[in-house]
Every structure is written in structure tokens, then in C-alpha cells.
């Protein structure tokens, strides 16, 4: 069985973001597994236009191809004012069919919260796109990230394993489902 193609999407493009470190660390953890083929989709690497264009630009086409190629996603999101960042919504809206009947998991973070408002908002968006969001998340409060270090690291590792197990199950199941019959819409 070919490994599941997992894209880890780094959602923050803010200057001095912490999202890149979090996203790349999570991707390294996922890369330890031989049942996953992991790529990082960093939204800061695409030169997206300032407004939604009538025709897709080269950057949009390249992003949509990256989404199309993947069979499962982990969205790495901070919380901004009890929601997710605009950079993420801008990119998500560039694709449509490419998200369909694929699983999406979340790594979220915030200051004082753990980004769960952002995740709740994203679940609604991905449901509209016919994607399947998985139940468990990896979530942490940046202000407490260094407390009880070893314990915290162990818990995070367990949370990563659970998220990746769920994504793998849904990813393989939906891979087979898409191959067996076209998705309805
Ligand atoms: C505009 C803005 C709004 C924020 N709102 C929240 C919030 O509602 N809840 C929270 O826990 N943290 C909030 N934060 C703190 C961020 O989660 C924190 O700065 C985090 O590092 C942002 O992710 P990034 O560095 O990857 O962009 C906010 C930060 C910014 C810049």
C-alpha cells in the first residue's frame, strides 16, 4: 500500500510568526512514520494576489496543484480574535474540488487559548468544501508551552500520534472510496 500523501499547511504568514516552527516540527514528527509521505505547504511561499482575481494566477494554480496532489491535510493554525487568520481563508477559497472527500486535521495554538475557536471556524469551512474533519487535535497555549517540559512533550507526542492515526484511517478509507465511486455533488 502506497503511503498516504499528507500535506501540512502552515496557515500563518505573519512576520515573525511562530507558525513556521510549529508546522515544521509537526511535519518532522509525521515524517517518522513510513505510512505517510509528508510535504509542507507554507502559505508564505506563494505570492498570492491582494484581491481574488478573475483568472487564477501562477501562484494560485501552483497552490491548487499542491492541494490536489495531497490525500489528507493537517492545517496548522493560530487563533486571531477567536478565529483563524485571513491568510488561511484566502488560500482555502482558491481550491474547491481538490478538498473534496479528503480528511483534514488541525494543529492549533494561541496565547491563553489553545486555538480551538479557530478550529471550530475551520470545521465549518471544510464542511462546506465536502472535506471530513477529524475529531482530535494537537492544541497548545504558547504561554504555557514550556511548563512541565517533559510531561508536556510526552502529551504532545501522544496527541500527534492520535491525530495522525485518525488521519491515516480516514485518508486510506477515502482513497479507496474515491477510487470505487465518484463523490456525489
Ligand atoms: C491579530 C491577532 C489576534 C490574536 N487573537 C488571539 C486570540 O483571540 N486568542 C489567542 O489565544 N491568541 C490570540 N493572538 C495571539 C496569537 O495566537 C499568537 O500571537 C500567535 O503567535 C500567532 O501565531 P503566528 O505567530 O504563527 O502568526 C492574536 C494575535 C494576533 C496577531
Q: What does this entry look like structurally?
A:
- There is one protein chain.
- The protein is α/β, with parallel strands linked by helices and 185 residues long.
- It has one domain: Flavodoxin domain (Rossmann fold, 3-Layer(aba) Sandwich).
- The protein is built from 5 helices and 6 strands.
- The radius of gyration is 16 Å and the shape is globular.
- The model has no long low-confidence stretch (mean pLDDT 95).
- Flavin mononucleotide binds next to loops.
Topology as a string of helices (H) and strands (E): EHEHEHEHEEH
How many DSSP helices? 5
Q: Could you list the spans in which at least 5 consecutive residues all have pLDDT below 50?
A: none
Number of strands: 6
- Cα shape: globular
- Quickly name the level 1 CATH class: Alpha Beta
User: What is the assigned CATH homologous superfamily?
Assistant: Flavodoxin domain
As for the number of domains, it is 1
User: End-to-end span in angstroms?
Assistant: 28 Å
GO molecular function, one term: FMN binding
Protein name: FMN reductase
Organism: Dactylosporangium sucinum
InterPro entries: Flavoprotein-like_sf, FMN_Rdtase-like_dom, NAD(P)H-dep_reductase
Amino acid at each position: 500500500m502506497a503511503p498516504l500523501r499528507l500535506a501540512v499547511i502552515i496557515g500563518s504568514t505573519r512576520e515573525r510568526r511562530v507558525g513556521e516552527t510549529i508546522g515544521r516540527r509537526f511535519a518532522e514528527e509525521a515524517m517518522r512514520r513510513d505510512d505517510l509521505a509528508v510535504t509542507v505547504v507554507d502559505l508564505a511561499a506563494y505570492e498570492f494576489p491582494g484581491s481574488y482575481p478573475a483568472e487564477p494566477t501562477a501562484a494560485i494554480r501552483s497552490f491548487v496543484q499542491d492541494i490536489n496532489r495531497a490525500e489528507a491535510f493537517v492545517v496548522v493554525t493560530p487563533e486571531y480574535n477567536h478565529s483563524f487568520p485571513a491568510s488561511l481563508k484566502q488560500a482555502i477559497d482558491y481550491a474547491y474540488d481538490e478538498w473534496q472527500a479528503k480528511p483534514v486535521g488541525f494543529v492549533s495554538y494561541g496565547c491563553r487559548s489553545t486555538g480551538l475557536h479557530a478550529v471550530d471556524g475551520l470545521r465549518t469551512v471544510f464542511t462546506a468544501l465536502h472535506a471530513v474533519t477529524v475529531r482530535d487535535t494537537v492544541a497548545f497555549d504558547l504561554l504555557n508551552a514550556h511548563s512541565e517540559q517533559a510531561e508536556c512533550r510526552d502529551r504532545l507526542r501522544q496527541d500527534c500520534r492520535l491525530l495522525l492515526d485518525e488521519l491515516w484511517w480516514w485518508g486510506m478509507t477515502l482513497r479507496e472510496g474515491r477510487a470505487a465511486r465518484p463523490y456525489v455533488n
